[in-house]
Amino acid sequence: MGNVSLRILIVESFGFSPEAVATLRQLGEVVLADLDRPGLLAAVSGTDILWVRLRHAIDEEVLDRAVRLRYVVTPTTGLTHVDLAAAEERGIEILSLRGEREFLRNVRGTTEHTVGLMLALLRHIPAASRQVVEGGWDRDAFWGRELFGKTVGIIGFGRIGQQAARCLLAFGVRVLATDPSSQPSIDLPEVRMVPLIPLMREADVVTLHASFSEHNRRFIGDREFASMKPGAIFVNTARGELIDEPALLFALESGRLAGAALDVLSEEQTTTAADHPLVRYAQSHDNLLITPHIGGCTVESMRKTEEFLAIRLATVCRAPASSHASVAASAGSARGRRP
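RE: above sequence
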């Protein structure tokens, strides 16, 4: 593909890095767009490279329209928004941030958002701010709780889990951690590794940072939420598919949990938020905070990841065909692999 001019469609181009665009224009035509689902389906047919964020599900309907498509680029580590099996059948490579450990070491948006959600929930910040805007000034209505002295349980102790632990230790908390997939290598002697259920029982705050796969779909469910300490809170900035959402809703409605904060929902690319049971609950209850998957959505994180992947894509496209597989693998490619 080295000397062929490519058509690169960026379907969510708001704030897209100019430096990344300049790199991509060395490969061919770059189309900067802001497309809804019908617009994506109409535009994708003549596209060689599709660059997406998290608005769209890249499913068989999209891929069937994209007869020239060779690459899907997504600046994410999770790939639930891409049908990997359908991409493999069509010989389409997926370039993502999965596996790019060294680069991701300095990408901190999701970690900071996690801590922000904890503080917002514990201190009733959204409700208190709303009361002032509406003309009130009743500080006694918003007695909160501190992180200091609490026990925080981290489920999934990879990159983000370990970043979160370092941040939380500065608050004077006790940190427990568990990793469903492996025993991670860590240099945090202050953190105690424990099994999942003991972590749920001891923690005042549980935060979820596991990677999603079909093997751990809804692995946090009735049993796990019932094991949590009464009055604890639950935070999820990983993937909505990791939890049994009806079980979480029951834990909130029953009073088992004092609150929850979510940056993700299951099937968020295909479900209207207003129809989601958790969103409906949040409309009338201040103890559930939901944000629209903005964990990694910072100016710094977006710029870094777009420039990084643009360079990686350029390397893949300019490489001889025989070396595409090895170069794509080093770029975090996920061709045909389930997440």
